[in-house]
Specification:
Blueprint lengths: L5 E10 L11 E9 L9 E10 L9 E9 L3 E6 L16 E6 L9 E2 L4 H6 L18 E2 L2 E2 L10 E6 L2 E6 L17 E4 L7 E4 L41 E2 L6 E2 L41 E2 L6 E2 L41 E2 L6 E2 L28 E6 L6 E6 L9 E5 L6 E5 L5 E4 L7 E7 L2 E10 L2 E4 L8 E3 L31 E4 L32 E4 L111 E5 L8 E5 L7 E9 L5 E5 L4 H4 E11 L6 E4 L5 E5 L6 E10 L2 H5 L33 H5 L1
Parallel strand pairs: 27-28, 29-30
Antiparallel strand pairs: 1-2, 2-5, 3-4, 3-6, 6-7, 8-9, 10-11, 12-13, 14-15, 16-17, 18-19, 20-21, 22-23, 23-24, 25-26, 26-27, 31-32, 33-38, 34-37, 35-38, 36-37
Length: about 800
């Protein structure tokens, strides 16, 4: 805070003792106001104020220093300079002095303040009667040859006295004069040798002449003795060559060619007049900022973008696209591509892109069942009633035709086939009918009896250890197309038990339900005690999800209870992907978790935690937590917080903010590890905006202040404040705000002016939502308080109702 203090000078009075009888104090009264860089008054308390006097406005060593510890009340402090350390007699106040001030031993404030004449000093400049002088008073003859008081000069014999313009001339008459005798200056600055004559020699005493008696610029090099300036090598001789970025000779060197570059030029300082004709040959060849881009570009300059679909193969330099230029997923795995001309392998031979199927590489497994037609087989050399079989199943095996096995019907038995199907019927002669009918048989289907003498395939399919009922092939150990009902009459034994031990090879789901309405449904119809304790659906897992639901149009998991909890999730995992209840929605506009309740005091979603986070929301681009009270501004709240609320980033509010107070809180600049710094913000009954700054007065003693181009569109009812810095100046507003600017006048050139302007918002939002400064409470809120504790009334008197408080 030390470096942030600034002063506003209120009054400065110099009181220098001139007459002992008048008892004028040899002190200086000084008053100032301490504010921070934002113009806010510093808090009340004691401050250390260090004051120093200088003979120059900048540089130089102080000729006087003292420190006061004074109280600061509403920013104002008062000191009397000279009460801690007396002002020395050498401070004669016959020249300009400058006052430097620092606060709490910080840096000295700039600029220094020039001391000006005040009533005591003005009176002291013209004394009616000098009743007594101090023995060391200079510039005044206090006695002449020991004679004090009124002295009359009388010309003696041979002398003459003349007066002219305040000068007294004593001359000798004739040739026998004895000169001036017995004249002596008591302050020791003048020495008279041989005063009795005939010629008197008057000389200045040693050290009698100081800087005050020497005319500025009158000392020449010949007047300075050798050795007075101890090291002339630190001075630049006129006529010596310049170096570095300079060329030529001193004292008038020039900047060398090519020595000025961008870093030496102040930004935005080059004007059109500085640029020679022809440097920029044709400004029409330049592109203006903000102009529209064309061709393959879109947007505006200087930052156009390449248009959609404007880059094709011809625009890309061959061989320049690197792996980092290709987005993930565009080419999943470049190692899976086959180069033209590479050798084919496996069941193929030749080269890509036109390989051939290798010899003897096609087996029965490669041929789709039922796709071989009669014309695909050669009839040459195939005996009647023969079968084609593979001799030796290893590579290099051969095919041969062998006689088929023939089933012969015994006595009274006939075997017939169906020309239109694969059915074979074995019949017995007589009245007994069919002996057995095999029907149609597909591999892997279990057979079943459909009649006393008929076997056909069932709907049960088995392959590779998977069993399917009504579905083939089976996708799991048990795959059922239809309804499953399981019953259990054993206590503590589930009707259906699903166990998934995880192992990291899958998602670890014990039971998964998929439906357009309800994936998994559980119902408890009775309990063993008066208090409901049953569980409709319970899932337990060591590593995955106990219960997991996916729905297309309906609900993945629903829970309903009249007295208990509809859905209860218990988890001891620490991962966010293994929560007690986890809801996931992968659609564009869906909801991962919804909760609905209609009770006046009910809670749709409730989170409770002793130390951690009760409700946690995380999102990349949307809203982590979203509340909506149907756009009502009078009933209910979209969000309600009882207690402190902490935010780590920006807060965006589209409506008004009603609050008890506003502050900012930061780490204390002087002790950030151990302290906070709290400040209140400026409050106003109006929707007020504040603008401020500093400006220097021009040679006319005026300055134009330009405000933002939106100022008059945003504000009305303007107010002004002006303060001169360093010196007093009777500044005023010459021209009020017009075209987003106003003019200050009334001071000297170069004076720095601090200004502040306020305005009341007049934008459309402000006009529609003006603040009601004094507002009647609603019928429901009358008799209640926003802050009952500060009025020492019961908390039940709060405008926030009891039901909400208890939540």
């Amino acid at each position: 805070m030390k470096a942030l203090h600034k002063f506003v000078l209120i009054i400065l009075i110099i009181c220098v003792s001139i007459s002992l009888d008048a008892q004028i104090p040899r002190t200086i009264s000084y008053q100032g106001v301490l504010t921070d860089t934002n113009g806010n008054l510093l808090p009340d308390g004691n401050r250390s104020i260090t004051l120093k006097l200088y003979e120059t406005l900048s540089g130089n060593l102080p000729i006087y220093t003292e420190t006061h510890t004074v109280p600061v009340i509403k920013g104002i402090f008062n000191v009397i300079i000279g009460t801690v350390n007396p002002l020395p007699p050498a401070l004669s106040f016959d020249r300009a002095y400058f006052l430097g001030v620092s606060v709490d031993f910080g840096l000295e404030l700039v600029p220094r303040t020039a001391l000006t004449a005040v009533p005591y000093a003005l009176r002291a400049a013209h004394a009616d009667v000098a009743e007594a002088l101090s023995p060391g008073a200079g510039g005044v003859v206090t006695q002449l040859n020991g004679q004090q008081g009124q002295v009359s000069l009388v010309a003696g014999s041979g002398a003459i006295i003349n007066t002219s313009n305040g000068q007294i001339t004593i001359s000798a008459t004739g040739t026998g004069g004895t000169g001036i005798q017995g004249v002596q200056n008591l302050d020791g600055t003048i020495t008279i040798n041989n005063p009795t004559g005939p010629n008197a020699t008057i000389s200045l005493a040693d050290d009698a002449v100081n800087s005050g008696y020497i005319e500025d610029g009158s000392i020449q090099a010949i007047d300075i003795a050798n050795g007075v300036i101890p090291n002339t090598s630190n001075f630049i001789q006129i006529g010596t060559n310049a170096g570095g970025d300079l060329t030529g000779t001193y004292p008038n060197p020039t900047i060398g060619a090519g020595k000025v570059n961008s870093i030496h030029i102040i930004d935005n300082s080059i004007q059109a007049i500085d640029i020679a004709n022809g440097v920029i040959p044709n400004t029409s060849n330049f592109i203006q900022n903000g102009s529209n881009a064309g061709g393959d570009l879109t947007g505006t300059y200087p930052n156009p973008t390449i248009g959609t679909g404007k880059v094709n193969s011809t625009n890309i330099l061959d061989g320049t696209i690197q792996g980092v230029d290709i987005a993930n997923g565009v080419i999943p795995n470049t190692s899976n591509f086959i180069q033209n001309g590479s050798n084919a392998g496996g069941d193929l031979t030749g080269t890509y892109p036109n390989p051939n199927i290798g010899f003897d590489k096609v087996t029965s497994d490669h041929i789709q069942d039922g796709t071989i037609r009669s014309f695909d087989l050669s009839t040459a050399g195939v005996p009647l009633y023969s079968v084609l079989k593979l001799v030796n199943t290893q590579f290099g095996g051969s095919w041969e035709y062998t006689p088929a096995k023939v089933i012969n019907a015994g006595s009274g038995i006939t075997i017939t086939g169906n020309a239109f199907s694969d059915d074979i019927t074995i019949s017995a002669a007589g009245s007994m009918g069919t002996v057995i009918s095999t029907g149609t048989h597909d591999p892997n289907f279990l057979t079943k009896w459909t009649a006393p003498n008929t076997i056909t395939k069932s709907t049960v399919y088995e392959a590779d250890g998977n069993v399917g009922i009504g579905v083939a092939p089976a996708a799991a150990k048990l795959d059922v197309n239809g309804n499953i009902k399981a019953r259990s009459t054993v206590i503590d034994k589930p009707a259906i038990s699903a166990v998934h031990t995880g192992g990291g090879v899958s998602e670890g789901i014990a039971i998964s339900g998929t439906s357009e309405e309800i994936g998994v449904f559980g119902k408890v119809v009775g309990t063993l005690s008066a208090t409901p304790t049953g569980i409709g659906v319970k899932g337990e897992t060591d590593a995955g999800s106990g219960v997991f639901g996916i729905a297309v149009d309906g609900d993945g998991v629903t829970g309903s209870s009249k007295k208990g909890s509809g859905v209860v999730g218990i988890s001891t995992a620490v991962s966010i992907t293994q929560a007690a209840i986890r809801a996931v929605n992968e659609t564009e506009d869906g909801y991962a978790l919804t909760a609905t309740t209609d009770g006046d005091n009910s809670i749709s979603v409730f989170g409770s935690n002793k130390k951690g986070t009760a409700v946690y929301g995380k999102v990349s681009t949307g809203e982590a937590i979203y509340g909506d009270n149907d756009d009502s501004n009078t009933v209910g709240y979209a969000g309600y917080f009882r207690g402190r609320v902490h935010m780590t980033q920006d807060l965006n509010v589209l409506g008004n903010i009603a609050k008890g107070s506003s502050t900012f809180k930061i780490d204390h600049p002087l002790d950030p590890e151990n302290k906070y710094l709290n400040h209140s913000v400026v409050e106003s009954p109006d929707m007020m905006n504040m603008y401020n700054g500093t400006v220097l007065l021009n040679e006319k003693g005026e300055a134009e202040v330009k405000l933002p181009d939106y100022f008059e569109a945003l504000n009305m009812d303007f107010r002004y404040s002006l303060t001169s810095i360093g010196v007093f100046a009777p500044v005023f507003i010459k021209d009020e705000i017009r075209n987003n600017a106003f003019t200050i006048s009334g001071g000297n050139a170069g004076v720095k002016i601090s200004w502040q302007v306020t305005g009341v918002r007049k934008d459309k939002f402000a006009q529609k939502h003006r603040i009601i400064v004094e507002q009647e409470k609603s019928k429901e809120d009358k008799g209640h308080y926003l802050y009952p504790d500060v009025y020492d009334v019961d908390v039940q008197k709060s405008t926030i109702r009891k039901s909400n408080i208890q939540k």
